[in-house]
User: Fold these one by one.
Assistant:
Number 1:
Amino acid sequence: LSMWGMESVANVLESYRGRDRLVRTVCYSSRLLGGLLTAPGGGHPELGRRLLLVAQELSNCRAALRLFDDLSMYLYSRGYGLGGTEEDAIVRLLSITGNVADQLYYPCEHLAWAADYGILNINSDKWWTLSNSLWSLSLALGALRSFRVVQLLKTELKGSQNKAYLKTEESNNMSRRAYQIRMRVETLNIISCLADLANAVHWMPPGVLWAGRFPEWLVGLMGTVSSVIGLYQMACGSCGTKDP
């Protein structure tokens, strides 16, 4: 790695969110490669099993660290409030509902985690299903919100082009670039949410859509796509999705 590259990685690792995103990427990449190696014809099943074990341990690590995320989620939700700064009522409603789902997700997952480790004498499956359902809802709402924002941006961009004669060419080009950058961010967020949503449905109880039907490599692929987008968003200074 070059000095610039090492400094960039170090800067990411210094923050909790950056470290979590990097660990998430390694986790799902290990699952992708491990799934491919253990699949029929993969050729290296023992190496694949080791990579899947690494992925599982990293996933457990992230779940333990999320025990401390409730307060930061609450402060984020309180800061957003009822979305007074949002001009569009649909975007506001989707955002508020998504924040509620995220806030409820964490305590449900904590209870499931505590049950798995024998700290609480309760049925962990029920709480895992509930937390996964809340995560799925949050992802679906996030995708819908970004889709709505893209539609609004297209309308605004078309309107700005119709009024281009009122602006200088330079200011009009800057405005168009700003819209395009925002549209790219929201489009990537849609892809990220849908990739995670595919996995979330896979982890639902049997009988729900494609629950339980994904091979390990496909779970790893969906998670890797979402994780790489998250790293890219962080590098660009844009706001990514909340991603268990």
Number 2:
Amino acid sequence: MESPLLLFPQLNISAPKDKLYYKIMKSAVKEEPHKASKTGAKQKRNRLSLLLQKPEFHEGDHLGKPANLTKAASVSPEEALKWGESFDKLLSEKAGLEAFTKFLKTEFSEENIEFWVACEDYKKSKSTHELLPKAKAIFETFIQKDAPKEVNLDFHTKEVTSQSMGQPLQSTFDAAQNTVYRLMEQDSYPRFLRSDPYLSLVKGRTPARPTLRRRSRSFTVRDFQGVRPDFSMW
């Protein structure tokens, strides 16, 4: 993949890492044209997905490789076990955050944790001058309609966030971040704790290759009509 600096030559290589990250986000969003070709749109979305992720979350991470939940195999079973105490405990530790991020990638829902991380970084901004470009990049990337990595928000939360974009504050994304946090805590986090890679870490074994899955859909009675039960396993 081409370097972000080659894709966006207007960026200042001497800029601090966080500022460079948000400039890349802004440039990537601006250069996303609406094309009729689904193939072209998909290719650009994939490129943007890579640019939006900070290096520590995707360095050396390929879905075809065995799914070690952490870069280093030095995470002890005791440390991994603590991740099950609470969702907040999992996200508060770097290794836990990385492990959960990689798990969400196997479910194709990594936009949720990327949005949460972006909001955490946004709240660390020290001046209004920093808030405005960061807020614009986050809104255009994760919240506005048809955003490249749009997160699932209710209409009221999205509307309140949109209205505060004129003069963004450190609390601008609090409601949206809390909504996404609860969604991950109630939905993705329990599945993470039941996943084979996590259970392998707890037991001190090398994590096995994951089974990639799409978001689940609801089954109906019609799906099972004409299917005869198999009692041979009993």
